[in-house]
Amino acid sequence: MPKTLLLLFSMLLFVAACQDKDALIPPPSKNYSQSATTQQEDFLYELSIAKPTFTVGEPIKITAKLTYVGPAQNVTIYHGGSPFRFNLQETTRNFEIPSAMDTPLITRILERNVPYEEFYTSGGGYNEFSEPKLVEFMKQTMKGHFPKGHYIVKGSTDFYTENPNEQKTEYKPSATIEFYVQ
C-alpha cells in the first residue's frame, strides 16, 4: 500500500510540473468597466477601451479624453509631453507597466465641449537587475504585444491652468478600467 501511495504522489507531482506555464488564472475582476469618467471642476477626464477582451497579438486601443466644460469659450492648459498617463498592472503575473513622460512644458488650448484625445502607446521598462520573466514580458509589451492575462489601466491627467494673476491651479483627475488578453 505505501508503494502505491508513493507512486500516486509521484505521478501527481509529475503532472503538476508539466502544467502549461502560460495557463495563468487571472484573479477575479474588481468589475471595472470599459469606460470611466471623472470630473474635476471644469474638466472631464474619460478613460476607455474598445472592448473588454482581446486575443494575443490583437492591438489594444485605450483612449484618454480631456474635455473643458466650463463657462469660457476656451481655456489654456499647461502640461508635460502629454497631459495623460497610462499606468498598467498585469495582475496575473503582478507586473507593473509604467508610463514614461517627456518633460517639456507644452501649452494647449481646449475649446469648450471639444474633447482632446490621445491613444495609449506601448510602455514599460526594465534594467539589468530585472528578472528574466519581467524582461521578456516588457519586451513584448513595449512592442505592443500583450501576453495573456488580466490588465488594470490606471489612467490620469496632470496639468495646470493659470489665472490672469499667474496663479496656478493643478488638476489630476484619474480613472481605472480593465481588460483581458486570452
Automatic annotation (TrEMBL):
Protein origin, superkingdom: Bacteria
Key words, A-Z: Signal
UniProt signal peptide: 1-19
Protein name listed in UniProt: Uncharacterized protein
